[in-house]
Every structure is written in C-alpha cells, then in structure tokens.
Amino acid sequence: MSEKVESTGMDLLKEVANVSGKPGLFRILKPSRAGVIVESLDEKREKTLIGPTARVSVLKDVSIFTDGAEESVALSDVFLKIREIHGEEVTLSVKTSSDKELIEFLAEVLPDFDRTKVYVSDIKKVITWYNLLSKYTPEAFVATEGETEVAAEPVAETPAVEEDPAKKAPKKEKSKA
Question: In a designed cystine with 59, which of 13, 50, 112, 169 is the match (CB 3.0 to 4.6 A)?
C-alpha cells in the first residue's frame, strides 16, 4: 500500500529528471551498468541510455531559493501553487515573454523568491517543466502533497523499524550458506 501512496501526487517527481544538454524531461526507468535508462516525456516516448557522466537532476530534489525563513522551497510546492493560480497550463510563452513578465509570473507564484539567485532561465525551465508534467503526467497533480506526506510518513517509519531485525536474520542465513 505504501507503493501506491508513493506513486501518486507530487511524489512522481522522484521518477522524473532533467538531463543537462537535452531538451525536455525524462522518466527514469532503471539503472544499468552504463548509466540510466530513461524515457522522454513527450508523444514519442523514446527510450535512451544516459551515460554516467551526464548531469541528471531528479525534480524531487530541485528547489527554488527564497529570501524568507526557509532558504528554499521544493519544486513540488511551486508546481502545486502554479496549479492553484494558473490551472492545467501556463499560457505565458517562454520564448516571446520579456524578462519582466517572467519575473512577475514567479513573483505571483512565489513572492519571496531570491531575485539574485534565481535567473530568468530558471523561471523558463519551471514553466516548461510544469507544462510538460501537466500534459504528459497529469496524475502528478491528482493528490495534494499534504495528503501524500501524511500518508507516506507513518507508513515509511513503521516498517523500517520492524523490517530491520527481519532483514538482518535472512542476510546472516544467506551468508552462512
């Protein structure tokens, strides 16, 4: 049951990555000896092997710098706020919008973002990634993050305590055999 909780809502971001030098987003399928096998998040759904030297950023680990009490805000929180304000698609064009319009967009979503550390190129990525996720993985926005966290934390903590002794016993048996 914990697997279902983890695969709903914004937790899907741990399966989605950006690969430096390649446009778009990719779903991480599985690791291999030569790197990671990924599938593009678009109509083509092309599978590619990403080498070990490529810079891969999992969206679950990405955050945006802020000036507030917290040093940064998780990208998943920003995506949920964009969903509240703009709905399923951000209509602001990344290619034709001015820097001022892009900064105003992020200021509307995250008023206390750090204007010295967050560049216009970062804002463009956030908009592009949001639109891709909204179009190709709408299930990421089904459950709110608050519900996911409440459901995931107790489930994750309880088995970890119970499984440790159980895991140690079979390992000892296997190593003796």
Answer: 13
DSSP the chain: -HHHHHTSGGGGGGGEEEETTS-S-EEEEEEETTEEEEEESSSS--EEEEPTTS-EEEGGG-EEEBSSSSSEEEHHHHHHHHHHHHTT---S-TTTS-HHHHHHHHHHH-TTB-TTTS-HHHHHHHHHHHHHHHHH-GGGGTS-HHHHHHHHHHHHHHHHHHHHHHHHHHHHHHHH-
Model pLDDT, residue 13: 84
Is the four-CA dihedral 124, 128, 133, 134 of positive or negative sign? positive
In angstroms, the CA 168 to CA 177 distance is: 14
Amino acid at 98: S
The rounded distance, in Å, linking the Cα atoms of 157 and 101 is 44
- Integer Cα distance of 53 and 50 in angstroms: 8
